[in-house]
Amino acid sequence: MRAVDALMECLKAEGVEVVFGLPGGANLPTYDAFYDAGIRHILVRHEAGGGHAAEGYAKATGKVGVAMGTSGPGATNLVTPICDAMMDSVPVVFLTGQVRTELLGTDGFQEADTIGITMPIVKHSVLIQHPLELPRAVHEAFHIARTGRPGPVVVDIPTDLSRADIPYEPITDVHLPGYQPTTDGNQKQIRLAAKALANARRPVIYAGGGSIGASGELTELATSDRLPVTCTVMGLGAFPASHPQWLGMLGMHGTRTANYAMDEADLIVAIGARFDDRVTAKLSEFAPHAKFVHIDVDPAEISKNVPAHIPIVGYAKNILPKLTAEYRALEPDPGRLEEWWHRINSWQERYPLSYDDSPDAEIKPQYMIQALYQATEGDAIVCSDVGQHQMWAAQHYHFDKPRRWINSGGLGTMGFGLPAAMGAKVGCPDDTVVCVTGDGSIQMNAQELATCAQNGIDVKVFIMNNGYLGMVRQWQELFWDRRYSQVDTGQFPDFVKLAEAYGATGMRLTDKHTLVDQMKEALETPGTVVADVRVAPEENVFPMIAPGQAARDMVG
Amino acid sequence: MGEPGTKELLSLEELEAAGSFRTGRKHIVSILVENKPGVLTRITGLFARRGFNIDTLAVGPTDDETISRITLTLDGAVQSIDQVTKQLHKLVNVLKIRDLEPTETMARELALFKISADGAARAEVMQICEIFRAKIVDVSKRTLVAEVTGTQEKIDAFERLVRPFGLVEMARTGEIAIARGRTET
What we know:
A: Rossmann fold, 3 domains, B: 5 helices, globular
């Protein structure tokens, strides 16, 4: 069979349900194979939309996402999603077309050095050089994307090779001598960590995106005693926000309680988190009293930013049950945490998340998220773009389950939200999927409204429209003397008309008193809906650790 | 050092002082890799991304034709190599990395020197070559080509001695290394 037909067989063998992509000259053979392969393919309107959709699918389902593009501009349009998937450890396989082998390196039409361009932002990549290599390369790509610390893998396929006739035999064994992730955690280290935890008087569990797949195990550990838990923006949902041991998100726009607890902790158990600069704030003053247990599947994360006293390399899912068992066996005295909880509770009472509501009908952005929480009964998959709305959604939509909060945390990619929501909805058709976005972000991939409308992908988009690139405006207001430079987006375009032009339903919501009901109406309206929610234009996200400051000096 | 998003003016001194932990010694890193296209680019790319300067680099086959050995030297006084070796481990085609202990390692480099040596100078240059056990591999009317092997330091010393005679050009391979005793490199 043709190498591309073998490719289809490989995708089926990997359990691929859906591919997001856009055809072009160099991947014509692949698209010919799609014609009768029986794999669902969703035609996106821009390759970046397809890449982020594959990410949204992967984040919502935990399976490997697949995105495709042609050579040259098709591949360069995928660069942002590839980098995004790398930063947030999202398992996605990117299949790119490439010019025929005799044109490689000759500046052929639509030729770009895809492997070279993407080299620093992939977990792995391969340029197929012989058609017989293709099936194994595809299986290896899925294996690498899915295991260890997940990430993007690029398979670049020259068009002539994809038409070659090859014998195909299913491949069941993938063995990569240079890629053997440590998965189980060292038992001695786990025992040490349990002891440290049992002796700690002011412990905090700090859980990141790596704990999303170990939510049950994390909750089990935390509730085996009264261990307080905070999550990064990537980890939200790994521990239920309605639980009394929940401190809220930590970091630049986290709760005071979470940040103060980190600041005063004597032991921090980091689980699948990487001490990002948005979490540590001023590194030299980060958690000055704490010892660190660091659980991560990627050994390169251990002691990268903060030296770990007890490193444990492996999957959180494998390590946490052992840690819980060792911890229980030590029969720690729960009374030792009394004083700590007393302190935490006093912060919680003193510094709840709050904002000044408007005296009139004006919608405060924070209220918009609270209204959305009410309208969806707290049970939607929320896909966010990047900016103020993202932080407010993270603060005010309380996630009780994992894989319900999908955002671009590491790269901070505006334009991520809508396509990610599209991918999430395709992966989880029975769930309510909403996209919380801004008037700036939505326009960076608004073309995917056409994809949603055409394919009946019921995504409900709520644009937090303040007429500004709000987060940049906030920084200019607070740190650059209110010199608002290039942040005013005005009221362009008319989002209701835009939605209608794309075949979606458009709504404009301007009154806080009717907001919840109108949001419910939007959610109940069949098909793709875009709600243009006009909010107070100059509201700021607080609390905040100002740049260069320590957590204890939060403002707002 | 101030956060990039703020107005704070950064001084050049502050920028330069913001380095990470450094070991202060030369490192010889031996890397076994799968002999596949692009592997060297991935490795050097990792160094480049972190602003590291590779002092020398040597690549060649091993006893197994599917595996190549890359030997590179770095100055630990100007850069911290721990993060980079961890990142190297993550490359799928990298099989093994060793940061070799200088005292437990045999390291050798080969160099070719083209030295102007006519008249009286010629005898003197040849005497130096003899002391350094350098081989004369080419002779012309006005020049000699000498081949020297040894540690980096020996070759540096040879260079210092012959330079006054007029060094026309020089080519060095960069060090390759192997662990002493029975242990595998």
